[in-house]
Predict the 3D structure of the following.
Amino acid sequence: MAVTGFGVRTFTIKYVRRILFTTTIVFIFTLLSSCGGGKVIKKRNLLDVVQDATASSQFSEGYRAMFAFDGKIDTRWMATETTWKGWLEARYAEPRSFSKASFTCAVQEKEGVPKDFFIEYFDPVTNDWAVALEVKDNQKEKWSGSFEAHSSDRWRIRVTSVINDQGDLTISELTFYN
Ligand SMILES: [Ca+2]
């Protein structure tokens, strides 16, 4: 009897503990949801995601424009051979206000890394591209720069020369942000 009673008590305590644990989790989740914190973060992240990407050219299917916006350093966009210039555009679901840009090129000997380039946004008023920043003689594989904030759903980098022309124009990751 004593052993059975002990077994029932242990089982009951475990059961009550599980209910208490589940209730606490549900309570915390409800509390966070009512604050709206989680929803706001999710919405902001979705807006910052590049919806579509295009480029002046692509070397092959393995070097698509979208590969410069997938968050992976081992995938990249590359233009067609022998041009050493071109542009890479990010499109967003809604106009986004940005004041900074950065890129990373995971390549050897700075092959195909942008040297002279423009950061541009599409201006719906003039229906044309506008220059947010002009960069001359960049020598870094990991570049970042800031400029006066502009709002647009289309942002791009337009490159006119590369550091080492042994490789064609390429970018592993391009980011526009604030
Ligand atoms: Ca990538």
